[in-house]
Prior knowledge:
Elements: H1 15-22, H2 63-89, H3 96-108, H4 111-119, H5 134-137, H6 143-179, H7 188-191, E1 196-201, H8 206-213, H9 233-249, E2 256-259, H10 263-273, E3 282-284, H11 302-308, H12 315-318, H13 349-364, E4 370-375, H14 377-384, E5 393-397
Parallel strand pairs: 1-4, 2-3, 2-4
Antiparallel strand pairs: 1-5
Helix pairs in contact: 9-10
Amino acid sequence: ATPAAPAIGSRAMPTIARGASVGFFAPGRRHHQRRTMSSEPRVSPSNEPPAREGEEGARNPNVPLLLLLSLGALAYNAYYYGARWRAKDAPASIERGSETRERASSAATTPGDRAAAATKKTPPPVVIIKDAPKEELEEEVTEEDKEVFREAAEMLLAAKRSAETKKREEASSASSASTSSSATSVDASSTRRGKRLYLVRHGRTEMNDYLRYHDWSSPHFEDPMKYDTALTSEGEAQARALGERVRSTLDPPPEVLIASPLSRAMHTAELAFADAFPEIPRETCVLARERVFHASDVGSHPAVLRERFPSWRTRDLDDAVASDGDDGWVPWWYHGGTSDPKHVAPEPIEVFEKRMHDLIAWIDAREETTIAMVAHWGTWYSLTGREFENCELVACALEDLRPGRGAMK
């Protein structure tokens, strides 16, 4: 016998047809499945378990699967369109290829590498400005700016010189304290005030020419033994040129002319000041002589100097005459305790510095307030710290002189 066709809505209807009829809303259509719709007994297919007793209706077994598929589709659509919107707003400089390579390289690292990278601090970004206009990076330096820079440089140089001068004065004070017992004591506050000095170094000499080509600090240096060296023709020309300047530049004019008794100093003083100030008194000072380095710093007999320079007063040289010398005199320069006028004894620095203290005291004790003095490199270097050129003229006050300002060994 042919079995009867199942009634519409009965449980004997194929599941796939039922699922297709209800679609995504199968759970809300249970009223179509009530028993009251058919009086025929339920027929359970072999692939569907029988309904439990007392249950109002059976659940569709494909509903959860359809729900999961629907949610998956919604999630995929949201992710896909969201990713497109984010990519649309991202900077154009980010390339998908580089992003993919970075992800691949990060994925290829080990867990230990990823942990180390997580703890490593990310360096700050580097900003590079390319093709910046030159006029925007550089400001034009005006003449005002240059003047400010020059003034600042001069101030720094003056501060440096002041510090060096202070240092030399401190060293000089220490040296002065050690020799104060033997130096002449003079009230500087009452006698130095207003003393003006015109300091000159002698003209070029034969020994200067020799030292131009022979370094006297070299261990192979040989003294040419040019006793009491004389001016060269160049040195005489320098002294005469100086005379043309002093006539118009020295104001007030000097009241007295003082020179070292070495021939080169007296000769320079004659040429530079004789025509400009013919009536000025001229006097030698043995304290102003050069420190004895070579035979050129050894002087001449007083009688020889008086014959060569008859207009000069040489009283201090007369004081050097002694009865125990070979011919009735002893050298007025440093001689190391001997009476041999040809003996060259280098003068120790302590003896020389003491003499510089005595020279300042000697100048200070004089009545004149304006004095012109012609001496030597070592003398003026010790008192001023300045290395005088031949026939260089420097005007200063007596209080500017300090023994030891020019450090010598």
